[in-house]
Design goal:
The chain has five helices and 17 strands. It folds into two domains: about 110 residues, Probable inorganic polyphosphate/atp-NAD kinase, domain 1 (Rossmann fold, 3-Layer(aba) Sandwich); about 130 residues, Tumour Suppressor Smad4 (Sandwich). It is an alpha+beta fold.
Length: about 260
């Protein structure tokens, strides 16, 4: 069980989240993130992703306990019993995972590095379909994928954009990645691949001037890319805290039976 003494309170800009923050601040003592052992995050899934990325950017990574004040709340816990917050965190289950590391080389040669918690996606920028060479561990698997785009998803992100693109749902402890095409035209029957998360995936844009492609690591976008390499950042670890019975792995299993 987690044993934390000092908590930071991170709050989204919504009126509902600010009201909940005022209520919690009257009941509990909070410290700045730089002094915290864990973070209480008020908002929705988008704000949780934003918070985790901010931790990665500043190099201050602590476990995050989310309270849902958004819509879906896939990464969050229920908003209830504010007076029992510390007791709930003490009983919470830890879920740790590594983000993706994206290296994108733009057409002008500039190198961009970003992390992604859900997925790295390549998307066509114009009405022209994209043409992308797909290589896994430097071995070309598809010489020319004609499509609207392609994405690499973590298990944590497999129920997000990946699922909308008809990609597979991956259990959190599977040590796998989903490589999923977006509206593929050729090869017509290719529906993607499931790969070990120790592999490196290289996506090379063909005819980049005529068929420009952008790369997106969660919310960070690089326009006019020439090549993108994606791997798991095994030197980084993020941790989410969930109430008993509300963990993300259970939600991912449940999602497979949703209609």
């Amino acid at each position: 069980m987690p044993d934390f003494a000092r908590f930071a309170l991170l709050v989204s800009e919504t009126e509902q989240a600010r009201a909940a923050a005022a209520q919690l601040a009257a009941l509990h003592d909070f410290v700045p993130l730089a002094e915290a052992e864990a973070a209480v995050v008020l908002g929705g899934d988008g704000f949780m992703l934003q918070t985790l990325h901010a931790m990665l950017d500043v190099g201050r990574i602590v476990p995050a306990y989310g309270i849902n004040l958004g819509t879906v709340g896939f990464l969050m816990n229920r908003n209830r019993a504010p007076e029992k917050l510390t007791a709930r965190i003490a009983r919470a289950k830890e879920l740790s995972f590594e983000p993706l590391a994206m290296e994108a080389v733009a057409q002008d040669g500039a190198l961009h590095r970003y992390n992604a918690i859900n997925e790295v996606s390549l998307l066509r920028e114009t009405r022209q379909t994209a043409k992308i060479r797909v290589a896994v561990n430097d071995k070309v698997r598809i010489e020319e994928l004609v499509c609207d785009g392609v994405l690499v998803s973590t298990p944590a992100g497999s129920t997000a954009y990946n699922l909308s693109a008809n990609g597979p749902i991956l259990p959190l402890d599977s040590d796998l990645l989903a490589l999923t095409p977006i509206s593929p035209f050729r090869p017509r029957r290719w529906r993607g691949a499931i790969l070990p998360d120790r592999y490196t995936i290289t996506l090379t844009v063909k005819e980049p001037t005529k068929r420009p492609v952008s790369a997106v690591a969660d919310q960070k976008e690089v326009r006019d890319v020439a090549e993108v390499r994606v791997r798991v950042a095994q030197d980084l670890k993020l941790t989410l805290l969930f109430d008993p019975g509300q963990s993300l792995d259970e939600r991912i299993v449940s999602e497979q039976f949703a209609f």
